[in-house]
Amino acid sequence: MTSDAPWLVVGLGNPGPEYAKHRHNVGFMVVELLAGRMGVTFSRSRKAVALAAEGRLGLGGPRLVLAKPLTYMNLAGGAVVGLANFYKVPVEQIIAVHDELDLPFATLRLKRGGGEGGHNGLRSMSKSLGNRDYLRVRFGIGRPPGRQDPADFVLSNFSGAESKELGFLVDRTADAVEAVVVGGLEPAQNTYHAG
């Protein structure tokens, strides 16, 4: 890995206040929390259709570029490529934080590469990067109840019961992102897959 290159942490979501609390926007929630921890603020990138924030994890720690694409989920890949090219981030140092229908609510899974599982944000990233070997931090949102269309489910707010746990879970997901950056994927998996 290129040690002097920053890490690019992409929160997948949709821009605009009407989407802010949706299940599909959990990636935005995580990178916003990371920005708060690092004491940095998002501003409009001149290199991509995205909001970006730069900083270090701790004193003298790894450099991170946090990103919230403003293209809507289905076209997020273009923004990711623009930022990766500008900051010279190798694909191994790109982390996508996203909601995952195929994991029960409150389950967190970390992996490198693989398929997109019908997630349009990941599909757009893989297509635009021409590569699937980026890291994924998968935040389980569970399957929709009854016969609800998954597309409607992801574009709805967390339930009341879920919302009570959401702050803790977003915090834990941000911890997992930091663990991947600082210690590598495998140790982070050992810690965060246990729960």
Automatic annotation (TrEMBL):
In terms of SUPFAM superfamilies, this protein maps to: Peptidyl-tRNA hydrolase-like
> Which segments of the protein form a coiled coil according to its record?
none
Transferase found in the keyword field? no
Question: Which reactions appear under catalytic activity for this entry?
Answer: an N-acyl-L-alpha-aminoacyl-tRNA + H2O = an N-acyl-L-amino acid + a tRNA + H(+)
Question: EC number(s)?
Answer: 3.1.1.29
Any single GO CC term annotated in Swiss-Prot or TrEMBL for this entry: cytoplasm
Write the record's keywords in alphabetical order, separated by commas.
Answer: Cytoplasm, Hydrolase, RNA-binding, tRNA-binding
Q: Where is this site: Discriminates between blocked and unblocked aminoacyl-tRNA?
A: N14
Q: Matching Gene3D superfamilies, A to Z?
A: Peptidyl-tRNA hydrolase
Stored Pfam families: Pept_tRNA_hydro
Report residues binding tRNA.
Y19, Y72, N74, N120
Which GO terms label this protein's molecular function in UniProt?
peptidyl-tRNA hydrolase activity; tRNA binding
- Which terms under GO biological process does the entry name? protein quality control for misfolded or incompletely synthesized proteins; rescue of stalled ribosome
Residues annotated as catalytic: H24 (proton acceptor)
InterPro entries tied to this protein:
Pept_tRNA_hydro, Pept_tRNA_hydro_CS, Pept_tRNA_hydro_sf
User: Top enzyme class of this protein?
Assistant: hydrolase
**Where in the cell is the protein located?**
Cytoplasm
Site Stabilizes the basic form of H active site to accept a proton: which residues?
A: D99
Q: What is its main location?
A: cytoplasm
Q: What does this protein do?
A: Catalyzes the release of premature peptidyl moieties from peptidyl-tRNA molecules trapped in stalled 50S ribosomal subunits, and thus maintains levels of free tRNAs and 50S ribosomes. Hydrolyzes ribosome-free peptidyl-tRNAs (with 1 or more amino acids incorporated), which drop off the ribosome during protein synthesis, or as a result of ribosome stalling.
By sequence similarity, the record places it as follows:
Belongs to the PTH family.
What quaternary arrangement does the UniProt entry report? Monomer.
Q: What is this protein called?
A: Peptidyl-tRNA hydrolase
Source organism of this protein record? Virgisporangium aurantiacum
Gene field:
pth
